[in-house]
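Lab notebook, bench 4. Still working through the backlog of constructs that have no structural model yet. Next entry is a single chain of 562 residues. Request: give me the structure tokens for it.
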Amino acid sequence: MKHMLSILALFATITVSAQQRLVYQSYMLGSDSGDTSFREVLRYKNQLKINDIQDFDGILIQGLSTDFTFVDYDADSAYFQMNYPDGESYFYSYPLKNNDVSFENVGEEKLNGYDCKKYKTSINSNTIEVWMTETPGYDASPVTSRGYLKGVMVRQAINGNRIMDLKSIKKDRKLKKSLIPDNLGIRKTGKELNNINKEKLIIRTKIFDDEQIHFAKIEKFKGEIPFDTVIHFSYGTIVVKRVNLPVLPEHYQIFAELRQHSNGDAYDRTGSVFVIPMDKELSLSNALIDSIEVIPYQYDRNGKKYQGIRLTDNYMPIVELVRFFTPFGVRHFNDRVKIDGLEWEDESYYKMEISELSDRLSGDVLIGAFIGNYDGGGHKISLDLVAYPQDYDGDVSKNNRWSLPLFNTCNVMEMSGQNYGRLFETDSLTVEFDIPEGVDNLSLRYITTGHGGWGGGDEFNPKENTIIIDGDKVFKYTPWRCDCATYREYNPVSGNFWNGVSSSDLSRSGWCPGTATNPVYFDLSDLKPGHHTITVAIPQGADEGGSFSHWMVSGILTGLTR
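Model written out:
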């Protein structure tokens, strides 16, 4: 009996101690992945310091914060703090007891050796159950955002399968008497702190900022394109900027984010955002700085000349990131036409994932944008590249993406004499290429749009595109958009017909005024290393009077290196 009393006395001494270290484990019931995480709760009297235990061996991504939650039960307050590698710290505070979440006591239960009270609530259709024990004689919970429950949390279950369990409680005499720092950083609201966190993690690179693309007589640029300077080419219809982009791990999702509005031009125009690759002796930069005549060209059976449209031994075509089309006069002409029930948009907005081309978006990169127009006011664009992490691993050696641009008939140097892609009327487009050893998971990233803006033109008539690999027809695809009427609010000066239909409503060959054209992806995983050919064949319509049809196609081979 005396021995039993001594054990109880020892337990009482431990539980009323002012200093504890509690460890919680989170896991999914029924999961065999082995993925778990741990959270530590340090307690000194009526204060807590809560943080996730990082078990990561390697390089972390940039912008990742170290987070702590501090609790002062005496002041009925919790503080969430975020600390960044650049030395900045931010926090927001909230009361523990004045909370909108209401827990219902649903009974008592023995769990993991503890006598517990069980509580239950529902948040956003999620059922949350919490087991609390008052046996230790103090309060401690690893979760504070849902308010206060008396005692120590033994378990939390979300929807019955997302579990957080108390794994250990140990006395820790090394804990500071005050766990909450005197200076927590800059106070923010929860919403402001969430925005700061996103901006720190996201890598945003401004390429163009309200840059004008128009037709004008400009002085021809000569020399090497400098870093971080926008240069206008081809009578102002192309802007190019040389930038230094970060090398990122493969898990980042990269998006091109483009905004455009009319600065005087009223028409739907072809636009393209592209990278000028510098892998070969010649590139589009030579044509921009010197002459369109310095890059390789070919003739079709009608004797028409096509410059820089395909891969050769000494030339690589541009890498098209985004094919987009301006609407009819958004913003500049918003006051020109009033239609009941329509509120004109202020700009057109395009956002497209380009992660598969990340090998072209690191280091020294030439990025360009083109809008074909003959207007002195033209258009204005803003372009950002935005990268979002999908993992905490910051090891850049784990980026194995590979790409090879094969062809591009989008004539971005139209104003300097580069011909429209009219060759498909009499010819197909064939390119020879080599796949190196160690490259697999191959796919063709293909963008295609048909043009010829009259009733019989290819813009308004579906045409099948055939992809031929090494002489075999492997893919057929007919580009067609029949949702163009969705974008009526972007087209204030689109023509309106007698029957109530607008010209911007009409279905088109792979595009609409005010939209970007999605790439299609053709699986080429069976293609082996070595020499190959690819051919694109399209039944392009015949000329009619002074009008002609043409096709803008771009193809990039993508894969992974082993």
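Notes after review: The CA atoms of residues 326 and 514 lie 5 Å apart. Confidence is low (pLDDT under 50) at residues 1-15. Flag for follow-up if needed.
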